[in-house]
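BUG: 3D viewer hangs when loading the predicted structure for this chain

Environment: internal workstation, default settings.
Expected: structure renders.
Actual: progress bar stalls at 90%.

Input used:
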Amino acid sequence: AEKIDVILDENIKLEKIGKVISKVDRLLVIQSLRNETNNTDSTNLTLPLDEETILFDSNRRSLGKIFEIFGPVTNPYYSIRFNDLKEIEERRLDVGVNSFIY
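Structure tokens produced before the viewer hung:
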């Protein structure tokens, strides 16, 4: 898996797109938050993301690109592939179960 090492500037607004539900083998699995909005206007729901979209943790550090999208279109799951889950610790990424992803 390609390492993406980007840190966003503080002036860039982050948008929660999901939360970590599992770390399996070399994959981080993220559940979309599309249906967990306080706004009843469906036009404000975030569209599903595309593969190759770069996702970030709460510390504005890049996790990597979306490797796979699966599940229902209305509430998809995303996976990010790592070469080894030790990368998460080495890069000090904030991706524990239930952590928000941006």
